[in-house]
Amino acid sequence: MSAKNNLLRRNERGMKIPHFDEIVLGDCTEILKDLPADCVDLVFTSPPYADQRQKTYGGVHPNDYVEWFLPKADQFFRVLKPTGTFILNIKEKVVDGERHTYVMELILEMRKRGWLWTEEFIWHKKNSYPGKWPNRFRDNWERLLQFNKQKQFRMFQEEVMVPVGDWSKTRLSNLSETDKTRDESRVGSGFGKNVSNWVGRNLVYPTNVLHLATESSNQNHSATFPRALPNWFIRLFTQRGDLVLDPFVGSGTTALAAIELGRHYTGIDISKQYVELARERISVAQIRLPHVAEHREKYKTIRKNGAIKGKR
Ligand SMILES: C[S@@+](CC[C@H](N)C(=O)[O-])C[C@H]1O[C@@H](n2cnc3c(N)ncnc32)[C@H](O)[C@@H]1O
């Protein structure tokens, strides 16, 4: 391990954490062994979807995926704080005309190893273009599986509230008597609502479906997700000064989102090329962001020396 990667930093609570605010080159299973237990607030990551991108960064055969992933998940479990959250962006690929079941098998195995499968979010890719396949339609969504170590985890729902929308102008201006009390579902679903609770409110809680466009601006990595994706989950599950880990960091998108939001990050990738790309993207972002004061002087010097010339 290089001297740089071995740098020890302390978090706000005085805990010594290697790889704090660093992008590290290596296999995440091994690198994570350096970290102490219970030090990460959020693990947010998108691993290879089996061997879907074999040509760009390799992968694992779908039949071997669970076995490959579990030792990594064990490390995520160990480094995650008891009140922390693990968000796994994944989608099963089609093998031989069928959706493979490795994601479902992975969920079941992770539950056996102590994880709670708390929730599933959907990322709807709202800018997909049409296509034609003989036996299916355009794949337009991905899973974001939420896992926790315990039922009580930190969640800051107010941070992701959304505008109430135009429906409120008509619907809430003319309330019936039923609207003013809790109206139990008539189809016996067990759900009820009191519509009058929303009168006078500009913001409401979102659903578990995120409508975000994919990004093709970063052509140097074939599987970059939009920065808005980690941004949303970082706001929901962490606060300023917390530590966000992406063990398959690729081009560094999660780390960039963390920096923008005043969180610390640790990013790991097995590819030298992607580690360099992530580090460069972060260097450029840190020059732009005035709130990352501690990094500003460091990166001013790098810029003066011409290391990232013309990247502003
Ligand atoms: C889906 S991509 C991540 C893309 C990333 N979310 C972004 O926005 O750029 C998965 C990444 O995992 C990396 N990878 C594969 N196996 C790994 C391992 N064992 N440890 C760390 N990184 C790994 C690949 O090099 C690839 O960059």
Could you provide a short overview of the structure?
The protein has helices at 28-31, 54-57, 65-79, 102-112, 167-171, 228-237, 253-260, 272-288, 293-304; strands at residues 8-10, 16-18, 22-25, 40-45, 80-90, 94-95, 98-99, 116-125, 141-148, 162-163, 183-184, 192-193, 203-204, 209-212, 243-246, 264-269.
Characterization of the model:
By secondary structure, the protein is of the alpha/beta class. The chain has two domains: 254 residues, Vaccinia Virus protein VP39 (Rossmann fold), CATH 3.40.50; 39 residues, no CATH class. 28% of the residues lie in helices and 23% in strands. The strands form five sheets. The chain has an eight-stranded mixed sheet. A two-stranded antiparallel ribbon has the order 1-2. β15, α7 and β16 form a beta-alpha-beta unit. α3 packs across α4, α6 packs across α7 and α7 runs parallel beside α8. It is globular. The N terminus and C terminus are likely disordered. S-adenosylmethionine binds next to β16.
- Major β-sheet, in short? 8 strands, mixed
Strand neighbour order, sheet with most strands: 3-16-15-4-5-9-8-14
How many domains would you count in the coordinates?
A: 2
CATH class of the largest domain: Alpha Beta
What global shape is seen? globular
The total count of helices amounts to 9
Calculate the terminal CA-CA distance, rounded to whole Å: 31 Å
Q: List bound small molecules.
A: S-adenosylmethionine
Question: Into which percentage range does the β-strand content fall?
Answer: 15-25%
The CATH architecture of the largest domain can be named as 3-Layer(aba) Sandwich
Structural class: alpha/beta
Q: Looking at this structure, what is the CATH superfamily of the largest domain?
A: Vaccinia Virus protein VP39
Global mean pLDDT? 86
Low-confidence stretches: 1-6, 307-312
Number of strands: 16
Rg is: 22 Å
Order of helices and strands: EEEHEHHEEEHEEEHEEEEHEHEHH
